[in-house]
Amino acid sequence: MKTATRDNWRKHLRTEWLLYVFLFPGLLYFILFKYVPMYGVLIAFQDYSPFLGMSGSEFVGLKHFERFFADDEFLTVFRNTLLISVYKLVWGFPVPILIALMLNEVRISWFKRTAQTLFYIPHFFSWVIFGGIVINVLSGTGIINTVLVFLGFEPVLFLGEKAYFRGILIITDILKESGWASIIYLAAITGVDPSLYEAARIDGAKKRHEIWHITLPSIRSTILILLVLQLGNILELGVQQIFMLYNPLVYEVGDIIDTYVYRVGLTEQKFSFATAVGLFQSVVGLVLILIANRIAKRYGGGVW
Fold it and tell me: Where are the chain's structural domains?
């Protein structure tokens, strides 16, 4: 049995060798930049010093994890990270699906191309640029406050108000990324068998019935796979957006694990502490993605 399997593998390698050539750069990238750096997590269990290196630094066990969990700010940053991630998932995850469904129904080609371009463009702006636009719009002398003052209202410091800050993060993230994320769903929708829609129309189905009973079930596996992948990054919001928009006035509701690591771990050169927090994020993310994948497999959408 083993010999037959080995022969089949060798035959496949000879006939499909070009596919492996194209696959090799991707594998090399993940090995060099994802797996090899994993050796660095040992720093989390040391009092690391750049001058002594990993081999010369003192091993301290779980000291930095205990310090992080005992820190008064731990519950605040963990709660902020979890809440903002859940809000983005609940409000932001359905938006690309809705955009793809709407674009799929557009029959005027020039309008569809224009709409797609407008939806996609924000993705290509870095958060430095996009965040600058948001700050200019929401600042005390920005467009919104100018209109409010013109209408007789008092100006509002949106980026300095705790009540508004999380909402601003969610809305700006949706505006920037939802159009680009819709590409995958739009590609999945185009693969749906047109005969299903024709049969539904013959039976008298309305457009909403076609979407609910044909389109969405047909792309269910794609939706579940992307949901699983997004759950795996639920504690990794990315430091760029929040770092560009937040300030000390909203630390209580906007300070997340990534910004906390930057402020406390890296700016103060506490490399071991920063690594310990990052390892904690990764472990939680791994657990969440395994749980989500197990649930998704029951509905035919598991990744493995």
Answer: 64-124+173-297
State the pTM of this model. Answer: 0.79
Topology, domain 64-124+173-297: MetI-like fold (1.10.3720)
User: CA-CA distance, 277 to 294, in Å (whole number)?
Assistant: 26
**What average pLDDT does the structure give for the chain?**
84
**Digit-coded pLDDT (tens) for 198-249:** 888 888 888 888 888 888 888 888 888 888 778 767 767 667 888 888 888 8
